[in-house]
Structures
1.
Amino acid sequence: MNKTYAAWQNFGSSLQSARIAAQYSQQQLADLVGCHRSYITMLESGKRCPSVKMIRMLAVACPQMLQDQESLTYFEELARYHIYED
């Protein structure tokens, strides 16, 4: 498993935890950030990589994600530069 795939799985787990803490269903979160519920499912499972804009919108919708600013910045950098490292 490459490091980037593992990083996006970690992002997905963080997103899921933050969504649950905010008491949103996947559909409610999708409605808040303007995407389809299946996209949230794919993000939470680590199967999709969000854009920087989407990361920021998710962080605003799920404030628990903002608690770890260092990780959030790391994910933004991965998304910004499409870094795929082995």
Note: The two ends are 8 Å apart (CA to CA).
2.
Amino acid sequence: MKRGFLFICFLSFVFLAAFSTCAVSCADIVMLKNGRSLEGEIIEESGTTMTLRTKIGKVVFKRADVASEERRELPEGFFGEKAEEKPQVTVNPVPLRAEGYGEASAANFNLSVSAEVKKLNNGDAILVKYTTNLPDKTVLYLTVKALGQELITRKQKVRGQSFAIRLGPFEEKRFSPGLYTVQVSCAVSRQESDEIKKQLGNIDDIVASAELRVGSPGESEQATGKRKKQLVSELKELGKLYNQMTAEYGSQKKKFDREKWDSLSESWKADLKAIKDVDADYRKSVIVMDYAAQESMKMLIVSTLERMSILYTEKLYKKDGLAFTVPPSPDDRPADALNKVVQELFSNEKDFIEASEKVEGKG
């Protein structure tokens, strides 16, 4: 009886001690997939994001980054004397050193992959590690994707149950802030050995994907917005050059002023070169372009306008009885055909420009 009474007292002591500890430090706890634990009060939620008020401010992050969460009653005085002050907002506390993990299986075979962005002195790289029980010499295909673009592709044969491979660095280029997917896949139809195909049998394709985040969503949005603004500016400048070039050519056909035309031609040449230089610097610095399709059309407009200027000059010179040699080019289309090409390209870019300016106007 005495022993039972002492045991009950002991349990009561443990309970009170735990309750006292909770009264001092308990709060909502959010564990992120990167291993970081955050403590505070969950004050806002949506289907995709969560906002946690902590002792150092508000923290906003995506639900996809959350490994687990534990809801607890917030003790009085948790935030201290400055509880009523408006906290500073920190967007998505995911470190720049992004990591991701994924796994897949089919029949008796499995494949798991982990990936990590490495910041090196001579550029960024991705370290990919996989673990599998697929037969040795099974061909795997590694792909890194972002914004719908395949940035890196690599064929790799299985060598044992675990293997690591580094992709990059890439000529001192950096990964822009954003989401990247590292995919490792095994398909029976793409195997090079009949023996491996026989060992694998009729299994479905095995595809393991790891999602990486470089920087925060805020940094990604800022970088993308900056590039969009620059791209729209370049496209509008090209539109002005095109209008000026075609209007001046129409005027010069009536009465050729060689000095004025040559001066304008040099000006257009310099402006087009300036856009090409900016584009080259951009492509040298990043591994993935934010608006690859629009960037490609922009450069096609640049090259077409350069060619049109040369062909217009040739026509005006010959009309005036002057000698002019056209530089060799793989594009042998006449100026009128190129003019139609440019008009179509500008038409394709029009929706992009208008949509971008509409969003910017709302902001």
Note: The radius of gyration is 31 Å.
3.
Amino acid sequence: MSNLEERRRQPLGRIVLWFFVIGTGIAGLGFGYKLHEFFWALQRQEGFEFAGIHLITYGLVAAGFLALLAHCFLGGHFSDIEAPKHDLLEREMRHDHAEFD
């Protein structure tokens, strides 16, 4: 049995898990409501003049991060997430041996 399964079976772990699930759901609903209000206000001409450039900037930045994530996912960078850690530790050990030997 894994550590995660043991935690899920504990009553306190379940309470904490449900607390975070419900909290995340409420926060998501609040964020969705604020987006709805924002886009409703943006339909008027004054709203777009006020926040249009900011929305375009944030959208381009978010699209760039999404493209980078897709590139990494399709390139197989997430297939073995432990490998970079081991490579770094091995390089550090070789560097230390070269420096102190």
Note: Helices lie at 3-9, 11-42, 45-74, 83-100.
4.
Amino acid sequence: MNTKKQIIAILVLLILLAVMFIICGEEDNWICERGEWVKHGNPSAPMPTEQCGEEIFCTLEAKLCPDGSAVGRVGPNCDFAPCPE
């Protein structure tokens, strides 16, 4: 009878460990900390190229270029994009 309890306890422990692994997810990824991408573990993916942290929203203004086209503002400083040459 004591052996059955030990086997049940081990099975319950293994199930709990499996559930924790599923919930916690991967340890190897990129994490956004204080506006910068920080390597966590050994991620297989390259560092993300999108901005980390607060999103910047630029006003919807346009600048007319000498060739007649128009360009809008782009981040991170919301400067006007360069005119085509």
Note: The chain has a mean pLDDT of 85.
